[in-house]
Design goal:
Helix content is about 45%, strand content about 20%. The chain is α+β, with helices and mostly antiparallel strands. The strands form three sheets. A six-stranded antiparallel sheet has the order 3-2-1-6-5-4. It has a six-stranded antiparallel sheet with strand order 9-8-7-12-11-10, with helices on both faces. Helix 13 links the parallel strand 16 and strand 17. It is elongated, with a radius of gyration of 34 Å.
Length: about 475
């Protein structure tokens, strides 16, 4: 039996990239099956062949994703595939006018299947990958004219463009759906980089967010040799894009800024593209999406440029949405007067810390604080002065506690401290530091309680509140610890 050499499909970076593209186009073909069926029917009508196949050459076989004159979905081993030969470098149309007589095919089992003539035009992607072939077959020998072969290749190119367009739409839809589910900025960052790398057939992507006059790397689809900040301006391709709001592409041999060329060497890139994220204002845009390829890419295919531009725009929308969600979350958990956590945040934090203490066995203490004689201060100096005292007390007390502690406004002039990993002895020292930080020569009373290992958040708050009542009853300007 005659078999076809498939040495040119040996494993390697180029073949892995080709197979990834084939897999993506197979999904796109399934999504666009009706349109593809109409196109192959048109091929049959134009060229007068009874059978037309649109074949994608996979790792071990070829898949017929659309067909005329037979049902699609046929799977053929590569060893007997003429299309696998059509994509052999240099990929070109394969013409076998008489399969039974041609020495390349006369022993092939396809002769017994009734295939007497074959013409296949390779499907070449916009970045040069040979993906499969658009082929026509006949049950009788048929020698096509040069014009027919040329027409078949033109139709193959048009169908490849349609497949790539469908693939781009699918990639955009997938990334958009993933971004829509992301509630935090870090999720958006990671999903942008992963989605853009896949959609652009790239090796990696980086999202850089503007911070003043520099760009900082917010996320990357792969670990970088070093995370760097880049100046906004002409010193790098990324900086230029952020400053101008216009996308750029650069490859080996182009005039590339020295800093960008050094970055490309560090990651092994031969081509790089950067796209603005967010609308460009007087000082530029909010960031840049940077994509690179480790293979030779003389120019960025138009379909890839359009896809990545759209995804950069989607990234900007997603980042604005998560920023809004962050602001809403902050507003819902922050006391508007003091900027401290509010009662809602206190309840959530205390419940979480009690659960953690139960799990780890670490101690937990809380304290209720009350500014002494606050009503008299308000009456004497006015409500604006009273509000300012509350703000200053909040800042002073927050500066006096540890970074792991929570200071929340409980209501009025009462505040609450949540002190994780803090037993009664440590709490005493910390509370005295807080009391000493009370501003404007004012004083405060404190009630403190340490979690007993079983009580609910409300029960713990109630014990601290009763201790606070004891501190005020005993003359204020003191701390009382619950039994």
């Amino acid at each position: 039996m005659s078999t076809i050499s498939i040495d040119h499909l040996a494993p390697g970076p180029d073949e892995r990239r080709r197979l990834a593209t084939v897999a993506a186009l197979a999904r796109a073909a399934d999504d666009a099956s009706d349109g593809l069926q109409r196109l192959v029917a048109l091929v049959a009508d134009l060229l007068g062949y009874p059978q037309v196949r649109l074949n994608l050459v996979r790792e071990d076989d070829q898949l017929t994703v659309a067909a005329a004159g037979l049902e699609p979905g046929e799977v053929t081993p590569l060893e007997t595939s003429f299309c696998a030969r059509a994509i052999r470098p240099p990929a070109a149309a394969l013409v076998i006018g008489d399969v039974a007589a041609d020495p390349r095919s006369r022993d092939s089992p396809v002769v017994a299947d009734g295939i007497a003539a074959y013409v296949g035009a390779p499907l070449i992607s916009s970045d040069g990958c040979a993906l499969g072939a658009l082929c026509v077959t006949d049950s009788v020998p048929h020698e096509p004219t040069a014009e027919e072969v040329k027409t078949l290749q033109l139709l193959a190119d048009a169908i490849t463009a349609e497949l790539e367009h469908s693939r781009a739409l699918m990639a955009i839809a997938e990334v958009t759906a993933a971004l829509a589910c992301a509630l935090e900025a870090s999720e958006v960052h990671d999903r942008i980089c992963t989605g853009v790398t896949r959609a652009g057939g790239a090796d990696a992507a980086v999202l850089a967010i503007r911070e003043g006059t520099h760009l900082s790397v917010a996320a990357a689809s792969e670990p970088l040799p070093e995370l760097v900040t880049l100046p906004v301006g002409p010193g790098t391709v990324t900086g230029r894009v952020c400053a101008s709001g216009r996308a750029e592409f650069a490859a080996d041999g182009d005039a590339i800024p020295a800093m960008t060329r050094a970055q490309m060497r560090r990651v092994g890139a031969h081509a790089i593209a950067a796209f603005p994220v967010g609308a460009a204002g007087p000082d530029g845009c909010a960031g840049a999406l940077v994509v690179w390829w480790r293979r030779t890419l003389p120019e960025l295919p138009a379909i890839t440029r359009r896809t990545l531009t759209t995804l950069a725009d989607q990234a900007a929308v997603a980042l604005e949405r998560t920023a809004l969600l962050d602001r809403l979350q902050t507003l819902s958990s922050t006391d508007p007067l003091t900027g401290l956590s509010n009662r809602r945040m206190l309840d959530d934090t205390l419940a979480r810390e009690i659960a953690r203490a139960a799990r780890t066995g670490e101690p937990l203490s809380i304290a209720m604080l009350d500014l002494d004689h606050f009503k008299a201060y308000n009456d004497r100096r006015g409500h604006q002065a009273g509000d300012e005292l509350l703000r200053r007390a909040a800042r002073s007390w927050e500066a006096a506690v540890r970074r792991t502690d929570l200071v929340a406004r409980y209501g009025g002039e009462e505040f609450t401290l949540v002190l994780p990993a803090c037993d009664a002895t440590a709490a005493r020292a910390l509370i005295e530091r807080v009391r000493a930080a009370t501003p404007d020569e004012q004083t405060c009373s404190v009630g403190c309680a340490s979690w007993d290992g079983i009580e609910t958040p409300d029960a713990l708050l109630d014990r601290a509140d009763r201790a606070l009542y004891g501190a005020k009853r005993d003359g204020r300007d003191r701390a009382v610890f619950a039994d």
